[in-house]
């Protein structure tokens, strides 16, 4: 029992400390800094991928409730829809938290510059094509790596043959190549 009380006390203390740290942090960030962070996260679409959370949760809850109570399907749909709509306003909490995270890490001036760039046509083009470009660059890097590895192996083998020639019976084409495991 004493351990359980100690653990509960530690959890409460950690929660209080975390709340105090959040409150003190919120006091350190100016409103203009938070506004710059909001503009930046809007411009870079930092939180858009979270837009499907509430509808997804509602769908899972609806499916679960209907599976357990198929005779109440109309009522379940209606109640879940009402309660889901009642929680939509909490989306602003996520935006506020995201703004605090960005404001903590990035200066107000940089956040304004980020928002300005990503609101421009160039920034929008980067947002639109960024994932495709990153994937294609990754593929190019893999091809480049294989070529560099091949060329390095060939060059090293050629130099090794010059500096440490071996009799014909001991030489192999893959003397320096690593064995596949």
UniProtKB/TrEMBL annotation:
Domain DUF2059: 93-148
Signal peptide (from-to): 1-26
Region (Disordered): 159-181
This protein's UniProt keywords: Signal
InterPro entries the record matches: DUF2059 (IPR018637)
Ranges of compositional bias, category Basic and acidic residues: 159-169
Protein name per the record: DUF2059 domain-containing protein
């Amino acid at each position: 029992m004493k351990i359980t009380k100690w653990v509960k006390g530690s959890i409460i203390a950690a929660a209080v400390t975390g709340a105090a740290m959040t409150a003190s942090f919120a006091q350190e960030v100016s409103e203009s800094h938070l506004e710059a962070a909001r503009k930046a996260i809007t411009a870079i679409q930092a939180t858009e991928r979270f837009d499907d959370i509430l509808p997804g949760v509602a769908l899972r809850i609806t499916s679960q409730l209907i599976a357990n109570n198929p005779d109440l399907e109309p009522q379940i749909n209606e109640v879940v829809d009402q309660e889901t709509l009642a929680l939509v306003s909490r989306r602003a909490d996520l935006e506020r938290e995201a703004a605090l995270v960005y404001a903590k890490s990035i200066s107000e001036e940089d956040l304004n510059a980020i928002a300005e760039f990503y609101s421009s046509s160039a920034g929008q083009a980067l947002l639109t094509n960024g994932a495709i470009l990153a994937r294609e660059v990754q593929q190019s890097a893999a091809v480049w790596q294989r070529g560099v590895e091949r060329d390095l192996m060939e060059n090293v083998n050629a130099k090794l043959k010059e500096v440490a020639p071996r009799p014909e019976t001991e030489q192999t084409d893959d003397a320096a190549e690593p064995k596949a495991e």
